[in-house]
From TrEMBL:
It comes from Bifidobacterium panos. Residues 3-41 form the AbiEi antitoxin N-terminal domain. Pfam families: AbiEi_4. This is AbiEi antitoxin N-terminal domain-containing protein. InterPro entries: AbiEi_N.
Length: 300
């Protein structure tokens, strides 16, 4: 029990010579607590928010210990779907009924559990609270595939931020979303565009948070020292545009450095995209009109 979160199944106890009647007597004496059919908890072990999920996972293969199951070459039951999102602390999903994926078909009559037949590659499974659970990218793709509200899926990115969107996981997401893109209104196989839509709220939040910084950057990249060039440029618009482009490029470069420092896990292509998007938010620096020799003012 010490290696299984203070839990034991009736099948495990029977293998040690402890009958179901013995378990019932121990429960009656307050030594054990019956959590669900065939699974008991040591009453001296504190209960937490994951206890019922641990018990449900143990009940799927009650004769095997948790250690035996976790040491196998492939997991016999993986937490998935909404339960996985909850376990990963990603988004606003209710874990019940508990959802598990098993590589071979299994059935259950329990109303608080849902099973699906699917085997995941090792790269799509991580361990959380001692349980195998689908990774963040895989969980996102599973929820999309199962028809979850896309606004709730987008909220997953808002909650996890860049912890869930490293350069590696971003590429995994693009690959996982590509087969689902067409049915959601994107070009066939365009997982990148689909991901951009899902991460749109996160992108906007980042731009909003960076806007004050970028406005300060804009103030730093002032045009005032270039008044002579500005006066000349007024008469030749191509030169004026070129000068503005140089300023915008300076803002973009500094914004990119700010993003790289603030969000070190972000992928380079995404960082560049955000840096480009914050440039238009920088207000133009006003330059006071200068007096020409003829006493007339130049336009700003």
């Amino acid at each position: 029990m010490s290696s299984q979160w203070g839990l034991v199944t009736a099948a495990q106890a029977e293998q040690l010579g402890i009958s179901r009647m013995d378990l019932s007597r121990m429960a009656g004496a307050g030594l054990l607590e019956r959590l669900l059919h065939g699974v008991y908890r040591d009453s001296s072990v504190p209960i937490d928010e994951y206890t019922s999920l641990h018990a449900a996972w143990l009940s799927l293969y009650p004769k095997k210990t948790a250690d035996e199951r976790l040491m196998e070459s492939s997991y016999d039951a993986v937490v998935c779907g909404q339960t996985a999102a909850w376990l990963l602390d990603a988004g606003d999903f209710i874990p019940e009924p508990y959802r598990f994926a098993t590589p071979v078909r299994r059935q259950t009559q329990r109303s608080d559990m849902r099973l699906r037949t699917r085997a995941y590659p090792s790269g799509s499974v991580v361990l959380r609270e001692g349980l195998p659970v689908t990774s963040f990218p895989q969980t996102v793709a599973d929820l999309v595939e199962q028809g979850a509200d896309l606004s709730l899926v987008s909220d997953m990115f808002l909650q996890t931020g860049f912890n869930g969107l490293t350069a590696q996981s971003r590429q995994q997401l693009i690959g996982l979303l590509s087969p689902l893109a067409k049915e959601h209104g994107f070009a066939d196989g365009d997982g990148r565009a689909f991901l951009d839509q899902l991460t749109g709220p996160l992108n906007r939040l980042i731009v909003q948070r960076l806007k004050p910084v970028c406005e300060s950057i804009g103030q730093a990249v002032d045009l005032t020292p270039l008044c002579a060039e500005i006066s000349e440029a007024v008469a030749t618009s191509p030169a004026w545009r070129e000068m503005l482009e140089r300023r915008q490029d300076s803002v973009r470069q500094i914004a990119r450095k700010v993003i790289d420092v603030s969000y070190p896990k972000i992928s380079p292509d995404w960082a560049e995209s955000i840096a480009q998007s914050v440039v238009p938010s920088v207000k133009a620096v006003s330059v006071k009109p200068s007096q020409r020799e003829d006493g007339q003012s130049n336009e700003e």
